[in-house]
Amino acid sequence: MNRTPLKRSRILRMALTGALEPPSGEGEPGHEKPFLLKAVQIALVVSLYWFISISMVFLNKYLLDSPSLRLDAPLFVTFYQCLVTVLLCKALSLLASCWPGTVDFPSMRMDLKVSRSILPLSVVFIGMITFNNLCLKYVGVAFYNVGRSLTTVFNVLLSYVLLKQATSFYALLTCGIIIGGFWLGIDQEGEEGTLSWVGTLFGVLASLCVSLNAIYTKKVLPSVDSSIWRLTFYNNVNACALFVPLLLVFGELQSLAAFDKLGSAHFWGMMTLGGLFGFAIGYVTGLQIKFTSPLTHNVSGTAKACAQTVLAVLYFNETKSFLWWTSNLMVLGGSSAYTWVKGLEMKKAQGEPSPKEGEKDGMGV
């Protein structure tokens, strides 16, 4: 059944406000899943995202900043993870074509037209994973949460810049709590002598890219028939191509040539394992956005990062001050409060009469 194409302004509104499906009347009625099944699916997807994401952070910290490796090539680490993802997608596609009843995976055929349509997302995707890794390289895993805590704030800013949507006072207040937690965390890192301004800047840029990535993911999914696997494949193919000139410009090929563990099976095993997690995180991130919303995905990521912080402090046997922990609680509390406020606003909006079609579609981007 063909659906009416969505206008660009409406797609952006869905992404920024957290709407998973088009408003009533635009989808197919009578196909609502039972609440219990939907809740179980969401719980499984979120749990899977947490496990893979936390594991990948600790593994990437080892690859990027381990004293035993001493590898100064963060872009190459990221490039290799994208390359492994592309190869895995292609391998699973070939297996599915050979054993269609055993392996269920969509076919992966390179289409330059589709690749070009995915390119804006790929640029944002490169920024997201690169700034994430650079932030992780320069800051500790425990501070990684606070360093990348401004995603919700950027959601509010992008809503205003792209859609001219005003934000309520209470929602802005929760963003103020997040910003306050961010600055308190920076202050406490400085007090402990472990603050990296470079890593913090990369964390802010990563937060911006995470917000943009959620928006563009929602926007370009129709280009790949809403297939997360196809989106993952095209996204990583584009990323691999774009990373090659970056490796040359930043001189990382020379760093690799001088790396003393380039022939180590352990090194390549850990790199490949990181690529496997990179393959998985690309899928579960899109899956979580699809089953929840971009906003819920960002909040889930913030809550996951707080659990990750506790694990990092325990694993590295660190001692943190009361105010340091307060900064983390402010970030989590502000993000949770923002979600609660937006939920109340959406319920209130649903209870009000719908505006006329001309008023709804009059907002351009």
Automatic annotation (TrEMBL):
The UniProt keyword set, sorted, is:
Membrane, Transmembrane, Transmembrane helix
The main location is membrane
Under Pfam families, the record lists: TPT
User: Which biological process annotations from GO are given for this protein?
Assistant: 'de novo' GDP-L-fucose biosynthetic process; GDP-fucose import into Golgi lumen; GDP-L-fucose salvage; negative regulation of Notch signaling pathway
Taxonomically, which superkingdom? Eukaryota
GO annotation, cellular component aspect = Golgi apparatus; Golgi membrane
Localization in the cell:
Membrane
Annotated ranges, domain Sugar phosphate transporter: 41-323
Instruction: Give yes or no: UniProt keyword Transcription.
Output: no
Q: Which GO terms describe its molecular function?
A: antiporter activity; GDP-fucose transmembrane transporter activity
- Span-the-membrane segments of this chain are 35-58, 78-97, 118-140, 146-163, 170-186, 198-216, 237-259, 265-286
> Can the keyword Transmembrane be found in this entry's annotation?
yes
Name this polypeptide is given:
Solute carrier family 35 member C1
What topology in the membrane does the UniProt record assign? Multi-pass membrane protein
